[in-house]
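Revision sheet: structure tokens.
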Amino acid sequence: MPYKFTGKLEQRGNPDYSGELDEETGLYYYGARYYDPQISMWYGVDPMADKYPNVSAYMYTMGNPVMLVDPDGREIGDYYNEAGKYVGTDNIDDNKIYITTARSPETFKSMMEVGGVDYVKKYSRLVTVQTNVKESVQKIYKESNANNVERKAYFVLNTQLATLTIEEQPRAKTDNNKHSDNYYTKDKKNNCIFISGEPHKIIVGQLHGHPDPPGTNATYSSSELKPGVSIGGKDTDDVAAKTMGVPVHAIDYTGKVSIVTPSGDINPDVPQTSEMLIQSLEISGGKLK
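Predicted:
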């Protein structure tokens, strides 16, 4: 095997060679995990696998080595356009999110080639992510249970303020137990949805409460593997996720949060941290499939 998965020569002493051979195991060490040259696969899981439950823990750069690199298996800076779509990375291990004027991955790549990271950052803004996520989740949970209704909130990427936050959907003026109608608008050209009348507020995820125990309502799944997620009906969570094109999060009667993605993947236990918002952005923005 003269070339490794990196495309670099297998030659000890070659300054361009990446990866150190472990003589005892026959594996190559790349800083984050070992690579088995006999089967052309990673020997261990991605160190960030917990953050990406919908991606194989043995996959390299989420199956997109043309656009992405992963030098050490850790976090890198991600860039999104003003429609909330993923356009690229700066490959800097800082776990930051940026909104850039680059409209497409091709434009972003050209900008990187012209002036590098410093040039790209001149046309980008650092996104501030809400940190008190659990507090917002618990508010929706308590109000849903107190009123026996599904209170709703949305994960919003504000492209004017460069923030990623949770915003509760207003209630109807005529009935406090109902939400206002036509809350969001679809932007077919940019393949996204935004809060009606505020196109700079891109919706990247939805959150709502399920006040009743599974089995008490026909729309709820009775499977223990899918607590709090409603599936298989006309207006269930899986349909909502597919229709909106963003992940839908449900808080079940115990306070646990689960997620269903537009593709129908389910994770029954999502941590109530800022990572929940970031993962929603990555899914709705196209970084994660």
